[in-house]
Structure formats: structure tokens, C-alpha cells
């Protein structure tokens, strides 16, 4: 629960980046030119940008979030409290399973790829090129690093 609260506080900054649409009321359409990028939550390593397309990751309910990462970016082994449903929009995501970041065991997922992981499944990702992924899942969303020392908030 503490991890979800920490992430929720981190994502608050995303609220100013996009006007959240809800499932109630009008429909939502977003063109590439409409995406408003801003700094990713501090629970992620520095250098990534994020854009909320739909919903609110800090609240219960469906949301869609895009994450843009630079070449060389990596997220250490971690888990999430809810399903993680990801589409690779551009670039390539290298996804590995387990509590150790063994890059030789990762699978390269190019643009157009999709993956879904159940709550609590340990995994890691790294990127050899600028990549955009879209996470569509339910909130409140959070991240818990397998090794607490990998949490970027611990080093701040």
C-alpha cells in the first residue's frame, strides 16, 4: 500500500500535463500532435517522459499512459499491484522476467508488439533506442522495485 501511495504522489505531477478524460461523459480521441509530454514520475529513473492520455493513474479506474524513454534507459526488476498491459508504439522494448536483470534472457519486442503481465510478476526492461510504450491498465498504479536500492526516489 505504501508503494502505491508513493507512486500516487509521484504521478500527481502528471495531472497538469493532460486533461484527464473519464469513461463517463464524452469520448476521447488523441492524435500524435495532441500528446503533451512531461517528466515521468520520480519513481522511474530520470530521463523518461510521460503523457496521460486517458483517466488518472492515481485513482481507481481505467487509464492510458505513454512513456517515452531515451536510448540506454533501463528499469530495474520490479512489480506492479495491478495488471500491466503494454503496447510498443515505436522503438524496441527488451523485456526480461524475474528478479534479476539478466539481459541475455530478455526478449526484444519491436514496435507493434504487445505484452500483459499479471499483478506481482517481477520483470525488468531496457531500451537500446528511443522507445515509446503505452500502458493501459487500472489504477491506482504503482511500482515496487525488487531491490529497494534501485528505487530512484531513494537516491534523491
From TrEMBL:
Signal as UniProt keyword: yes
InterPro entries, A to Z: DUF4437 (IPR028013), RmlC-like_jellyroll (IPR014710), RmlC_Cupin_sf (IPR011051)
Keywords attached to this entry: Plasmid, Signal
Organism from which the protein derives: Rhizobium sullae
Listed name of the protein: Cupin domain-containing protein
Cleavable signal peptide: 1-23
Pfam families in the record: DUF4437 (PF14499)
CDD domains: cupin_DRT102
Amino acid at each position: 500500500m505504501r508503494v502505491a501511495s508513493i507512486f500516487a504522489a509521484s504521478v500527481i505531477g502528471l495531472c497538469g500535463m493532460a486533461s484527464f478524460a473519464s469513461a463517463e461523459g464524452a469520448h476521447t480521441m488523441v492524435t500524435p500532435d495532441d500528446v503533451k509530454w512531461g517528466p515521468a514520475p520520480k519513481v522511474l529513473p530520470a530521463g523518461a517522459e510521460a503523457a496521460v492520455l486517458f483517466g488518472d493513474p492515481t485513482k481507481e479506474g481505467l487509464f492510458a499512459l505513454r512513456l517515452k524513454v531515451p536510448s540506454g534507459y533501463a528499469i530495474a526488476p520490479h512489480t506492479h499491484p495491478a495488471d500491466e498491459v503494454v503496447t510498443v508504439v515505436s522503438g524496441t522494448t527488451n523485456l526480461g522476467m524475474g528478479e534479476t536483470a539478466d539481459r541475455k534472457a530478455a526478449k526484444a519486442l519491436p514496435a507493434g508488439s504487445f505484452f500483459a503481465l499479471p499483478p506481482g510478476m517481477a520483470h525488468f526492461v531496457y531500451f537500446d533506442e528511443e522507445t515509446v510504450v503505452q500502458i493501459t491498465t487500472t489504477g491506482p498504479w504503482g511500482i515496487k522495485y525488487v531491490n529497494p536500492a534501485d528505487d530512484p526516489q531513494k537516491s534523491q
